[in-house]
């Protein structure tokens, strides 16, 4: 049993809480140079943060030496994105000292909540993919699985979104402007990362042909660690984020030539690598700087992995027994030729031995089937930036295709589909093919998605490697996504079934019988109402709009994407508006429809839909007939800390993507876990949510994935729905004719045209009527609060499967082959 495990016994003693207040005051002076008599919230937040962090450093060091002593196999989770949000409350929650801390902070004259609000989100990701990585780190360390996150410390995270005259405007997110107390910068550790140059052959002393990468331009990578505390402080791990520093020698040579500005230019250019996160979600832009970022992450990380490994091993032959590397999508897939290069060119191995090590080390997770998101890099770009890697990729492909050709003789079409090199339209490297060939396991992120990989996108690979492509359904951490974000509900659950649920989410099933207990239902409804009140106050503060907590809170919060179909939701809102206008005295269920989400800055259609939401909101909210029955708002700058306010307050969760397009979704899990009912298509993890909560407790509608595929094949005609449905026709005509944009009648024509004239690729017209019917069922059920609350309880109670603890254990046992330490 590890030393660390015993630490959680007496938190007061372990975390020296009696000294915390003094430490906060000391840090105010010593670290921040502030007068402790000052009442600046920001200073106190920082002083508290440092005081909390220093209590974990010791545990972190013990954890690391536990890993070292036991020679445990380590998991490296490589991701271009992490989306941790704020750290303070997560540290306190996982340390189990929220209440104690609240008291201490009160003695200093603050509320914990106001200090919490001083922290900027760490927005080092776009959306679900980055947040999943952060949930997995929480679950790994909480379950004693020795793992690390490796990523990039962007100076500028995902942009700050504001809404000006209904339009999205982007401002840069200078999140570390005032420092970040959670970072531990390792100034003394620097790795060199090479770019450009050329691959050179030479003969080694045995007369063998070898390769080396020469005439490179070098940049230094410096690590910055952020601690990740496990729940109950079982262990403390870290994510290691790299920042680019100019290399010293390239400066010096220029200085010696007297070219000061030239030297500075080079310095600035090289440090640009980690300047900014690319804000595209599921869209490849193909910029050289992005490929540089990817290789920068991979090169620095592998130097670190091998350094740590070689401290305890003399030969690299056993690497796959000591190291598992998970590639979070193809973004870090250049790691495969990089490890080959290191093993062959630096450590002198032959191809076959190196390839065997490589393919036993890597596993790859696919997160999308959208064609515009699949990474391909032009051969000339990749070959110029990473010439030796390009050579290795060609050789991987040559050997791979040899194998395929032997299995499927004469099937040249199959060869060209499976090739790592795409030939048509100029040679490009298909990163997904490279990742599949170089990994022992490939997984999709929900059952339906993995199935689509096996039978659709990666069908040829599934035929060739029948056991390689598998499923691990996503999950979310119950610590942040219930315990921390929803204290009212957490308290009620713990009072009713005890505290174990937060480490064993299946325990929530014990709530099932309580759905029949009217006192419990009342308490459940009160918790929801309290959260809705809190959110109403937030909405008033943010967008100066009053919303009524007694109305149905209908929420769609996620990145703006055509396939996620925020537009379908808007079409429902417009239809409700029309029904009220036609019959102002009609008895309808009062609703508040809330939206949030960022659009990629270059995604025209997604930005236009934001504008449409805001213009519809303007019309609806100003209408006297509608008052009290329908309100619409778009909350700017959706981010993790906003999600923590939104999710607990939802009655209805909108998960309405075109079936077959959302790989999994994780917002769907967060909302249902917090007692929202889902209206959704049979897409991604919605399918499994329905299986868990029961078809009678969820509003499923619309085309199924195979029907979407069939319709695309047989010819889909959106106009047919327009012609046969008067209510739909009216909605479309209002959008197209400028009803919501009287000063600019043609403003929304592109929205109208995409559905009516450009094929309605995401099939909103086909799903409109079924969606309207499902929404009518929602309205009816909401009027019966007793039934609604019962179903709300049953939703939360049946979400056990969607804990990221379960997902991580599936990876650990089935893919990484690691066991929790100390068990
Ligand atoms: N996802 Br690829 C992203 O958030 N960004 C990406 O670049 C890619 C995928 C999402 C999927 O859209 C979502 O369905 C999934 O739940 C999430 O990754 C985590 O797997």
UniProtKB/TrEMBL annotation:
A Gene Ontology molecular function term for this protein is:
glycogen phosphorylase activity
- Write out the GO biological process terms: glycogen catabolic process
GO cellular component, alphabetical, reads: cytoplasm
Q: Which reaction does it catalyse?
A: [(1->4)-alpha-D-glucosyl](n) + phosphate = [(1->4)-alpha-D-glucosyl](n-1) + alpha-D-glucose 1-phosphate
Listed PROSITE patterns: PHOSPHORYLASE
Could you tell me the superkingdom of the organism this chain comes from? Bacteria
Keyword presence, Glycosyltransferase: yes
Q: What EC number(s) are associated with this protein in UniProt?
A: 2.4.1.1
Q: Which residues carry this modification: N6-(pyridoxal phosphate)lysine?
A: 670
Name what cofactor the protein needs.
Answer: pyridoxal 5'-phosphate
List the CDD domains hit by this protein, alphabetically. GT35_Glycogen_Phosphorylase
Give the residues annotated as coiled coil: none
User: What's this chain's function?
Assistant: Allosteric enzyme that catalyzes the rate-limiting step in glycogen catabolism, the phosphorolytic cleavage of glycogen to produce glucose-1-phosphate, and plays a central role in maintaining cellular and organismal glucose homeostasis.
Family classification: Belongs to the glycogen phosphorylase family.
- What is the protein name given in its UniProt record? Alpha-1,4 glucan phosphorylase
Annotated organism of origin: Oleidesulfovibrio alaskensis (strain ATCC BAA-1058 / DSM 17464 / G20)
